[in-house]
């Protein structure tokens, strides 16, 4: 797609230059089409010849006219099963070699795995560049690499309103790394937009730009685009090379999540090793991320413990201040009401307080519990080797004062009770003496 000021204009100019070099006359175009057709026919003939040689090699090589030909057949079949090596076969009376690759239909080292479907779109403009450098070195050289890429892109598009942005850098196996970039085109009105990923990929994939990318350390580049419904359907309908239709259909049925996963062929030990390395790299990245999250969680726990301790301290201070304010309010209210008679609401309050005091003085309720608590505290302080006050639990001074006052009130109440009982005994004694004298 050609856009003013974008990569499309640069690509159009590049295609025009190529057409001018090749010749713009009708005869030149016709000759180029004939050459392409001739090359395509040669490729098809070569493929058919290799297929026929492979079938001859695993069935009847025809190299020897005796039992040695069966040994060659078995050896060729073994290499075909393994997907490696070179076999011998006869074609038109001449012995020729056959290369057994993992893609041959007889190879047994093949399977189908599942990978996550890409979620990026062509409109996002993401293009991945694979560097033969570790990620630490690439991060250190990020500014210079971005400047070089920007100069390459500007030379292609012949526009100065284009900038290259780095989206992410992640490590890959074998001391490689991947840099994901996007190209922004700024308009004269101040806005900006992403150029299509396929346009950027086609511009950088040009043969004239490959040496410049290789000087930067780029070994591979590919657009990060997802599948359209038509492309996904076409991909699933046709089995990949080297995978039988039965295995491909079964793999589509066994897909655990067809909405997010896609079947991917793994052919040969090299593909399996590459996939294992990538999975190991992803596992290490996940582990490092989990360790980072665990460290952050520990920091949050420590901060929570510190905050909880501060909240407890402030609560104690608030309780102390509340009691002090309450005492001041009591004194202020007593001074304000001094010289006045008792009001009806104050009389009702006195009655309620006397009821509460009577409830507290009940022997089978709070009084008994306080006596039991007091005896346990005394026993704890009198235990030998218990440490006395050193091992006693710290208590709030305000709470201790309240307990002390309550115990004093209990002691006063008990003293009054003893006095009343003694007076009653004296009265009974007087009554008994009166009856005796009568």
Polypeptide structure, described:
By secondary structure, the protein is an alpha+beta fold. The protein contains 13 helices and nine strands. The strands form three sheets. Strands 4, 5, 6, 7 and 8 form a five-stranded antiparallel beta sheet that branches. The chain has a two-stranded antiparallel sheet with strand order 1-2. A hairpin with a 5-residue loop joins β6 (176-186) and β7 (192-194). The longest helix is centred in the last third of the chain and has 69 residues, at 268-336. Residues 1-30 and 386-391 have low confidence and may be disordered.
Task: Summarize the topology.
Blueprint: H1 7-22, H2 26-59, H3 68-82, E1 86-91, E2 94-99, E3 110-116, E4 127-131, H4 135-140, H5 142-157, E5 162-172, E6 176-186, E7 192-194, H6 197-204, H7 210-216, E8 218-223, H8 229-237, H9 245-253, E9 261-267, H10 268-336, H11 344-360, H12 366-382, H13 397-437
Helix pairs in contact: 1-5, 1-6
Please give a quick description of this structure.
With 438 residues, the protein is α+β, with helices and mostly antiparallel strands. The protein has helices at residues 7-22, 26-59, 68-82, 135-140, 142-157, 197-204, 210-216, 229-237, 245-253, 268-336, 344-360, 366-382, 397-437, and strands at residues 86-91, 94-99, 110-116, 127-131, 162-172, 176-186, 192-194, 218-223, 261-267. The strands form 3 sheets. Strands 4, 5, 6, 7 and 8 form a 5-stranded antiparallel beta sheet that branches. The protein has a two-stranded antiparallel sheet with strand order 1-2.
């Amino acid at each position: 797609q050609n856009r003013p000021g974008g990569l499309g204009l640069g690509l159009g100019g590049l295609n025009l230059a190529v057409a001018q070099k090749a010749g713009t006359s009708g005869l030149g175009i016709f000759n180029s089409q004939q050459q392409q057709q001739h090359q395509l026919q040669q490729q098809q003939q070569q493929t058919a010849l290799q297929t026929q040689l492979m079938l001859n090699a695993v069935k009847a090589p025809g190299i020897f006219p005796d039992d040695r030909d069966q040994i060659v057949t078995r050896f060729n079949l073994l290499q075909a099963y393994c997907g490696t090596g070179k076999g011998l076969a006869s074609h038109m009376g001449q012995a020729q070699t056959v290369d057994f690759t993992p893609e041959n239909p007889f190879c047994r080292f093949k399977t189908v795995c599942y990978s996550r479907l890409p979620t990026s779109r062509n409109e996002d403009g993401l293009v991945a560049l694979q560097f033969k450098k570790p990620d630490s070195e690439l991060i250190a050289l990020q500014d210079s690499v971005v400047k070089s890429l920007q100069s390459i892109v500007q030379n292609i598009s012949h526009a100065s309103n284009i900038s290259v942005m780095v989206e992410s850098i992640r490590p890959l196996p074998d001391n490689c790394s991947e840099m994901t970039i996007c190209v922004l085109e700024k308009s004269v009105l101040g806005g900006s937009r992403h150029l299509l990923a396929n346009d950027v990929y086609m511009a950088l994939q040009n043969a004239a730009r490959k040496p410049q990318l290789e000087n930067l350390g780029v070994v591979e580049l590919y657009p990060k685009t997802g599948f359209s419904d038509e492309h996904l359907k076409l991909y699933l309908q046709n089995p990949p090379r080297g995978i039988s239709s039965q295995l491909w259909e079964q793999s589509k049925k066994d897909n655990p999540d067809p909405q997010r996963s896609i079947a991917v062929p793994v052919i040969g030990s090299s593909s399996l090793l590459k996939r294992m390395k990538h999975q190991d790299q992803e596992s290490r990245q996940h582990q490092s991320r989990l360790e980072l999250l665990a460290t952050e969680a520990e920091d949050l726990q420590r901060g929570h413990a510190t905050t909880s301790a501060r909240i407890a301290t402030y609560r104690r201070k608030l309780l102390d201040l509340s009691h002090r304010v309450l005492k001041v309010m009591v004194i202020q209210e007593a001074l304000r009401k001094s010289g006045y008679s008792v009001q009806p609401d104050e009389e009702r309050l006195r009655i309620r307080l006397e009821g509460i005091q009577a409830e507290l003085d009940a022997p089978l309720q709070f009084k008994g519990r306080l006596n039991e608590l007091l005896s346990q505290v005394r026993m704890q302080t009198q235990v030998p080797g218990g440490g006395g006050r050193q091992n006693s639990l710290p208590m709030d001074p305000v709470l201790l004062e309240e307990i002390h006052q309550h115990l004093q009130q209990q002691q006063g109440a008990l003293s009054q009770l003893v006095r009343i009982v003694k007076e009653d005994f004296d009265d009974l004694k007087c009554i008994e003496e009166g009856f005796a004298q009568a």
